[in-house]
Amino acid sequence: MLSMSPTERDDLLALAGELGDLARAETLAQFRPEGGIGAQNKLSSGFDPVTEADRAAEAVMRAHLEERRPQDGIFGEEYGVKHGTSGLTWVLDPIDGTRGFMSGTPTWGVLIALCTQEADGPGAPLLGVIDQPYIGERFSGGFGAATVSGPLGHRPLATRSARALDEAVLFTTFPEVGTEAEGAAFARLSRQVRLTRYGMDCYAYALVAAGQIDLVVEAGLQPYDIAAPIAVIEAAGGIVTDWQGRPAHRGGQVIAAANPEIHAAALEHLAT
């Protein structure tokens, strides 16, 4: 990890909050309009929507970073990579859960992470923010501390304590998890837990950090989908890896768990 003073860490956390404020304004201005939200499809086969709110929110965050920390890199979903010289890269997903945003459901969020920079892309997350503008909740984590601010006030975050797998609550976004083999692995795990729920996008990761659920399991993720959740969950006491127990900051197959015990139990059923 890069050496940073407490003041530098506080400044970076504050800057992440500023980015969240800017993205809130852009996304809320376009959420739940009369007649619904239009979107463009980024795929020639399948459906990967992008809205004007996605683009506007990322653009305003990038502009603020260029002003405040031009030496840092940026890795964003909508506008790609800007290389930096500081050894740090901001990883931005302006609306994680665009389908939910289009549908008017408050499960989407703004994801902001600051990562080390590796030769071939963003490295380990140092701090992260999961922001849900409509509800007004912001989950922040980094440098050993995690907090939530929202309608119920400001408080520390802590993940759930260990429990048996058959008492666990499991989330994923789509019932069709990844490839056929990945879907079969998820189904094996789902049969072992008490409750499986779907469709919460990044908000499910926030619920792990907040001690409300035990597991999130997904496949086919990109770095901007998972960098911020990793930082928040790990700062709250949880663990995030790929399905083989390796670092997950590059995306792909991801499991987020409230504690090492439930993580190990779930991995046994995901192994193919």
From TrEMBL:
- Annotated residues for binding of Mg(2+) 1: E77, I95, D96, D225
Assigned EC number? 3.1.3.15
**Keyword Metal-binding carried by entry:** yes
| Chain sites annotated for binding Mg(2+) 2 | D93
Query: Could you say which protein family the record assigns here?
Result: Belongs to the inositol monophosphatase superfamily.
Q: In which pathway does it act?
A: Amino-acid biosynthesis; L-histidine biosynthesis; L-histidine from 5-phospho-alpha-D-ribose 1-diphosphate: step 8/9
InterPro entries the record matches: His_9_proposed, Inositol_monoP_metal-BS, Inositol_monoP_superfamily, Inositol_monophosphatase-like, Inositol_monophosphatase_CS
Coiled-coil stretches are none
A GO MF term:
histidinol-phosphatase activity
Name of the protein described by the UniProt record:
Histidinol-phosphatase
NCBIfam families documented for this protein: his_9_HisN
- Annotated organism of origin: Thioclava pacifica DSM 10166
Q: Which domain of life is it from?
A: Bacteria
Instruction: For this UniProt record, give its keywords in alphabetical order, as a comma-separated list.
Output: Amino-acid biosynthesis, Histidine biosynthesis, Hydrolase, Magnesium, Metal-binding
